[in-house]
């Protein structure tokens, strides 16, 4: 009985990762479309604040509108939420206001990796 229980627990654990991770049902994952939206919003806000402070009127650059494409975000993949949060924080933070949203996006958001089935893309990394 104990062997069956351990087998069921192990099978559930493995299938839980294999089924829930691609669907995005784990806690620290974010769909690419949502990550792209957050990165674009952060770039637009940073551009607006920078332009108002420096020029005196709100201006949004074309680069902030395509910030998700610059960060190479694929909308059908999933990303680690803490990495996306760090990218957005960098764009909206001091680095974003000092360097601008484009340079900060290139520096901070280029290393966002897609989250694979278990822990890595496409296989787990340890």
From TrEMBL:
Keywords: Lipoprotein
Keyword field contains Lipoprotein: yes
Keyword Lipoprotein: yes
InterPro entries in the cross-refs: Lepto_Lipo_YY_C
Name the UniProt record assigns to this protein: TIGR04452 family lipoprotein
């Amino acid at each position: 009985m104990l062997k069956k229980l351990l087998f069921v627990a192990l099978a559930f654990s493995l299938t839980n990762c294999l089924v829930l991770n691609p669907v995005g049902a784990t806690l620290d994952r974010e769909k690419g479309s949502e990550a792209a939206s957050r990165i674009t919003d952060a770039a637009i806000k940073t551009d607006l604040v920078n332009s108002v402070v420096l020029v005196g009127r709100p201006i949004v650059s074309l680069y902030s509108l395509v910030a998700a494409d610059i960060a190479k975000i694929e909308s059908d993949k999933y990303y680690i939420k803490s990495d996306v949060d760090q990218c957005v924080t960098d764009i909206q933070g001091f680095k974003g206001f000092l360097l601008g949203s484009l340079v900060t996006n290139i520096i901070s958001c280029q290393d966002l990796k897609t989250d694979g089935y278990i822990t890595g893309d496409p296989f787990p990394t340890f």
